[in-house]
Amino acid sequence: MTAMLQVLAGHELIRRDQDPTDGRRQLITLTNAGRRRAEGDQAARAEWLARALHHNYTEAERQILLDALTLLDRLTHL
């Protein structure tokens, strides 16, 4: 994990600060560049999923998937 955080910090995607209440810990936050990168990655995944669903499934199959997601969402909120 430390190596990964070093790479992200080196690319100025995160900022590492000492925890003011516990000097052994660090607080990790996204920089503006990191936030833009994360949002761009999320948008690209959403675009890919929309295209994959459109090209590989019928409307009826997409509706089944949406119904299943609704049930799974309910399950996660029990």
From TrEMBL:
Superkingdom of origin organism: Bacteria
InterPro entries listed in its UniProt record: HTH-type_Bedaq_tolerance, WH-like_DNA-bd_sf, WH_DNA-bd_sf
The protein's name: Regulatory protein MarR
Species per Swiss-Prot/TrEMBL record: Frankia canadensis
